[in-house]
Amino acid sequence: MARDLSVQIGSLSLKNPIIAASGCFGYGLEYAGSLDIGALGGVASKGLFLNAREGHAPPRIVETPSGMLNAIGLQGIGVHRYISEKLPELRRLGVTNIVNVCGTTIDEYCEVSRALTDAEGVHAIELNISCPNIKEGGIQFGCIQESTYAVVSAVRKATTLPLIPKLTPNVTDVASFARQCEDAGADGVSLVNTFLAMAIDIETRRPKLTNGMGGLSGPAIRPIAVRMVYECAQAVKIPIIGMGGITCAEDVIEFIIAGAAAVQVGTANFVDPFVWNKLIDGLTSYMERHDIARITDLTNTMTKGK
Amino acid sequence: MAIDVLAEILTNRALSADYNVVEFAAPDLARLAEPGQFVMVKTSLGNDPLLRRPFSIFEILRDATGQPRGVSILNKRVGVGTNLIYSTKPGDRLNVLGPLGQPWPRQTADEHWMVAGGVGLAPFVTLAETLAKTNARMRLFYGGRSASDLYYASLFETLGATLVLTTEDGSQGEKGRVTAPLERALSARGTTNVTLYTCGPTPMMRAVATLGAAHHCQTFVSLEQVMGCGMGGCYSCVVQVNDHATPHFVRSCIEGPVFDASRIIWDALVH
Ligand SMILES: Cc1cc2nc3c(=O)[nH]c(=O)nc-3n(C[C@H](O)[C@H](O)[C@H](O)COP(=O)(O)O)c2cc1C
Question: Measured between beta carbons, which residues in chain B are less than 8 angstroms from residue A59?
Answer without folding.
Answer: 226, 236, 270
